[in-house]
Design a protein that fits this description.
Blueprint: H1 13-25, E1 30-36, H2 42-48, H3 50-57, E2 63-69, E3 74-79, H4 84-97, E4 112-118, H5 124-131, E5 135-138, H6 142-153, H7 157-172
Parallel strand pairs: 3-4, 4-5
Antiparallel strand pairs: 1-2, 2-3
């Protein structure tokens, strides 16, 4: 059996989108990125202690793209370039987990704000965000617009042909 080799590049677009927006928007806030939310299981906490349980349970905890701590509020930030509705759904879950997140307990008394950052002007996503008291922020740096344009070309006849050529080439050099 041939070993498959992953030939895709992971460009980590959404973390970059969020980080850029956070730096521009919160010059005096304290940002944290890829923040795990929720508590570890009680049984694990009792067996090995809170700190060890948080470390051991880390891979299974949901993760928000960013949390920004300010004097007067705590802001959750999720970024989505394409699937905005998925990000809003995640923010609903993340908001519910904040009060149970041990690392965020020092900020539990602060008002909570939820922000979805996206380059895509929302339609029904805005209706849902409003219903749950969230904000949708349109952030469109040039590199994101170029990425979206590049992505959309994949679905044209020319783009599909280029994809097939690339697959054929990879097959000839042993990447299947």
């Amino acid at each position: 059996m041939k070993k498959r080799v992953n030939t895709r590049l992971n460009r980590s677009l959404e973390p970059r989108l969020v980080a850029e927006w956070v730096v521009q928007t919160f010059p005096h806030g304290t940002p944290m990125y890829r923040v795990p939310l929720g508590p570890p299981p009680d049984q694990l906490r009792q067996e090995i202690g809170l700190d060890a349980a948080l470390q051991k349970w880390r891979p299974w905890r949901p993760e928000v793209d960013a949390v920004v701590i300010e004097k007067d509020r705590l802001t959750l930030v999720e970024g989505k370039i394409f699937k905005v509705l998925d990000g809003i759904a995640k923010l609903i879950v993340y908001r519910a987990l904040v009060p149970y997140t041990p690392e965020l307990q020092p900020y539990a008394n602060l008002p909570l704000r939820s922000v979805m950052v996206t380059p895509k002007p929302p339609y029904y996503e805005k209706i849902i965000a409003d219903a749950f008291g969230m904000e949708v922020v349109i952030y469109r740096p040039e590199w994101v617009l170029q990425t979206v344009e590049e992505y959309n070309k994949r679905w044209t006849a020319e783009g599909r042909l280029e994809t097939q050529r690339r697959k054929d080439f990879l097959k000839t050099v042993g990447f299947t």
